[in-house]
Amino acid sequence: MEQQQSTEPTESTESSPLLNGNRELAVLYAIAGYLNRQVDVHDALQEVLAHVTRLLGLRTGWVWIFDDAGEPTVAASQHLPPYLADHSERMCGSCLCLDTFMGGSMEGASNINVLRCSRLKNAERDSDPSALGLRFHSSVPIYAGSTLLGVMNVASEDWRELRPDELQLLHIISDQIGLALQRARLSAEHTRAATRLATIEERNRLAREIHDTMAQGLAAIALQLETADALIKTKPERTHEAIQRALGLARHNLEEARRSVMDLRAAPLQEHTLPEALASLATAEPLPVVQYSYTPMLQFPALPARIEAGLYRIAQEALTNARKHANAQHITMRLSAEEQWINLSIQDDGNGFETDNVPTNTGHFGLTGMGERVRILGGSLCIFSEPSKGTCVEVSVPY
């Protein structure tokens, strides 16, 4: 991709007719309001692209956002030609506009107007109709302070060079996008910090609850046993009653202890959300490769500690089974949150087994423990498996 033209902003653009026009100011106001109200960044960028392309009389646009590792991803797109839209691999990797901005070789990256798109050079060479005649685009950086967050490109098959005042308008919009992205990231960091604090408070609460429950329960059992010991020779009937009460208290407190222990968070959950902990679990061993995904990607709901611990342990057991017992070559794990349910599925291509003929005396595949955890969480567990056809574990629990 080669740079075709550069246009330096001049002082006259500060009072350009475009920025003074009521329609353009109304669009800027609408974009600012939408970015402030919209929680999902991708939805906001999609709406901004629609406004920008309509305002400039263009058709196509896309926005690159750099992730924490500095890799660019397409966060929003508007009317991409089939040449790009139907071949996602053509929107991967570097190109001139991205390399230019990331390298900082152009002064502030503010003077770029028209670029010949390197992603479309093969289509241009071969006269590929699926590119819809698209050749050029205008690129505008998205900053938060001095930090480059992404790049916004706008294009059209009947390309015309953008005027300096139009480029200035794009820069104003890109600044608004940068502020919105920075705000979203700060909000995400605040959410993670709040989650960690809530986790610590929950652990302390559970510790106090376990201590109080067990201490009171053991004291009551001891009292009944002392009574039985004092009456064993003189009043055997009352001794028997005291022992039965002690047994009842012991069973009740044992069940309470089990519930409390289920509420305790697994160690990987101490400072991480459930999606983050499962990601670490998926990559704990290099082989077989575990393909892991979760939805929603943003603002995964905060869950009670007992649900996170239960799902983590179920996933841990299922992955261990697939890796060490089923000889799986590939594993897919998915976590999703709906309005009232959390769903976890783990699919492997391992040996499989007959679900109607599972040995009960060997703890085969840990099904008993997994079923017990799901039962305590009030959810459902479905296991689908056939010999030589792999196994699928599906768990749904309410929250």
Automatic annotation (TrEMBL):
GO terms for molecular function: kinase activity. Residues 311-399 form the Histidine kinase domain. SUPFAM superfamilies: ATPase domain of HSP90 chaperone/DNA topoisomerase II/histidine kinase, GAF domain-like. Transmembrane segments: none annotated. Gene3D superfamilies: 1.20.5.1930, 3.30.450.40, Histidine kinase-like ATPase, C-terminal domain. Keywords: Kinase, Transferase, Two-component regulatory system. CDD domains: HATPase_UhpB-NarQ-NarX-like. PANTHER family: NITRATE/NITRITE SENSOR PROTEIN NARX-RELATED, SENSORY TRANSDUCTION HISTIDINE KINASE. This is Sensor histidine kinase. It comes from Dictyobacter halimunensis.
